[in-house]
Amino acid sequence: MAKRKIVHIDENKCNGCGLCVPNCHEGAIKVIDGKARLVSDVYCDGLGACLGHCPQDAITLEEREAAPFELPTPAEQISELRQWPIQLHLVPPQAPYFQGKDLLLSADCVAYALGDFHSSYLRGKNLVIACPKLDAGQEIYRQKLVELIDESKINTLTVMIMEVPCCGGLLQLARQALAQAKRKVPVKLIVVGRQGNINKDEWL
Questions:
Q1: What is the pLDDT of residue 26?
Q2: Percent of the chain with pLDDT over 90
Q3: Model's pTM, two decimal places?
Q4: Which Pfam families does the protein's record reference (predicted)?
């Protein structure tokens, strides 16, 4: 491998805000376990478009041995996941990467029904997932959603559910959280059919 310029992220400085992620158009940076990480040398072009968007100055360019830069081909599906964890039981509602962001609350099954889930629905949003039928302790879900609305001041909430009856519980949880929260946020409902069709896509 030849030496070339490539992004270096100082994990001690990084606060996990995620501002660098949408500014890395090649998809080389993701927030994992609360820290921005370079997940692919191949997709880092070394131009440093992400540098000026880091409020902690945690991103620099270094010269080291790395695989040659390659643009993703159209056939490749680039993940739009911006943080980890994503399961609603596990997410810390006041994490920096939720602050002022658009939130996608999705039923577990949705991503399996939609081939373009990442590119068409997850892009530009932070994600939490839940199953309203099988998950226990759903009172915790409601409280976490309230905290995301009031404490993290999410910008919008999109609820994605399947057309099956059990998924309606997720919309009900969201409505309960909105009723309890002090802030009001715009809410969109997207209902997905079992064949991957969109049955409903509307602001509530």
A1: 77
A2: 53
A3: 0.66
A4: Fer4_6
Closest listed residue to residue 110, CA positions, set 193, 169, 175, 173: 193
Q: Provide CATH code, domain 3-65.
A: 3.30.70.20
First-to-last alpha carbon distance for the chain, in angstroms, is: 53
Distance CA 80, CA 119 (A): 7
Q: What is the pLDDT of residues 36-66, one digit of tens each?
A: 888 888 888 888 888 888 999 999 999 998 8
CATH 3.40.50 in the chain, residue ranges: 96-203
d(CA 22, CA 32): 14
Strands 126-130 and 102-107: parallel
Model confidence band, residue 23 (pLDDT cutoffs 50, 70, 90): confident
Q: Where in the chain is the domain with CATH 3.30.70.20?
A: 3-65
Place of tokens 């609360």: 34
Structure tokens at 103: 């939130």
Contacts of 45 (CB under 8 A, 6+ apart): 26, 69
Helix (H) or strand (E) holding 172: helix 168-180
pLDDT (tens digit, 9 = 90+) per residue, 66-85?
888 876 665 556 788 989 99
Return the number of other C-beta atoms located less than 10 Å from residue 155's C-beta. Answer: 13
